[in-house]
TrEMBL record:
PANTHER family documented for this protein: CONSERVED PROTEIN (PTHR33169:SF26), PADR-FAMILY TRANSCRIPTIONAL REGULATOR (PTHR33169)
Sorted UniProt keywords: Coiled coil
Domain of life of the source: Bacteria
Coiled-coil segments on the chain, per record: 130-157
Domain named Transcription regulator PadR N-terminal: residues: 6-90
Biased composition (Pro residues): 195-205
Name this protein carries in UniProt: Transcriptional regulator, PadR-like family
Region (Disordered): 183-205
C-alpha cells in the first residue's frame, strides 16, 4: 500500500521526502502514521527497482520551518518517478482483484488514485468493495440477532452503531457505482472508449 501510494504521488509531481510524507498522510488519512523509518526504506526499495530517481539536495536551500529535528539534508533530496515507475504504477492501478477491495485501507488508497484508473477497473473495484461490505453487514446482523438478549445496553448500542456505519458505506458505494454507470453511458454516447479514464481537469494556475 505504501509503495503504491508513493508511486501515485510521484506520478503527479516530484517531491522531497518531507513533502512526500505530508502528502502520504493526506492520502492515507487516519489509516496509519507514516514515519521516516518506514518512508525512506520504501523509497530505497523503489529506487533499487528503478522506479524512482533522486536528485542531490541543494545544500544552500533551507529546510521547511516545521521540519522535525534531525531531518538533516536528507529531507531535501528530490524523488522523481521514472518511466519504469510509471509503467509499474499503471500496472498496479489496472489490478481489480480482491486485494484491492477486501482491505478497507487499501481500498481507500486505491480510491485516492481513481482518476488514474480506467473506468471498467474502477467499477469492478467498487462493486467488489460493495460485496465485501454487504457480507460484513450480514455478519453483523446475524451476530446482533444471536446475542441481542445477552448484551448490556451499551454493548448493544455499540453494535448498532457499527451496523449503521456499514449501512452508510453500502449506500455510499451504491451512489458511486450509479455515478460510474451514468458516466460510462455518457462516455459511450459521446463515442469514448468504455475503459478510458475520465478526462483530466486542466491544472489550476
Amino acid at each position: 500500500m505504501l509503495e503504491f501510494a508513493i508511486l501515485g504521488l510521484l506520478h503527479q509531481s516530484p517531491m522531497h521526502g518531507y513533502e512526500l510524507r505530508k502528502q502520504l498522510a493526506q492520502v492515507l488519512g487516519g489509516l496509519r502514521s507514516i514515519s521516516y523509518g518506514s518512508l525512506y526504506p520504501a523509497l530505497k526499495r523503489l529506487h533499487a527497482a528503478g522506479y524512482v530517481t533522486t536528485d542531490e539536495p541543494d545544500r544552500r536551500a533551507p529546510l521547511p520551518a516545521d521540519a522535525p529535528p534531525l531531518t538533516g539534508r536528507r529531507g531535501k533530496v528530490v524523488y522523481t518517478i521514472t518511466a519504469e515507475g510509471k509503467e509499474r504504477f499503471h500496472e498496479l492501478v489496472g489490478q481489480a482483484g480482491p486485494e484491492t477491495y477486501d482491505d478497507g485501507g487499501l481500498f481507500g488508497v486505491r480510491l485516492a488514485f481513481f482518476r488514474h484508473t480506467a473506468a471498467d477497473v474502477r467499477l469492478r473495484i467498487l462493486e467488489g468493495r460493495r460485496r465485501t461490505v454487504e457480507r460484513q453487514r450480514e455478519g453483523l446482523r446475524a451476530s446482533l440477532s444471536r446475542t441481542r438478549e445477552r448484551l448490556d445496553r451499551y454493548t448493544l448500542e455499540l453494535q448498532r452503531h457499527g451496523l449503521e456505519s456499514v449501512d452508510r458505506e453500502v449506500r455510499w458505494l451504491a451512489e458511486l457505482i450509479d455515478r460510474e454507470l451514468t458516466d460510462g453511458q455518457r462516455r459511450r454516447d459521446d463515442g469514448a472508449t468504455p475503459g478510458d479514464p475520465p478526462a483530466q481537469a486542466p491544472p489550476e494556475p
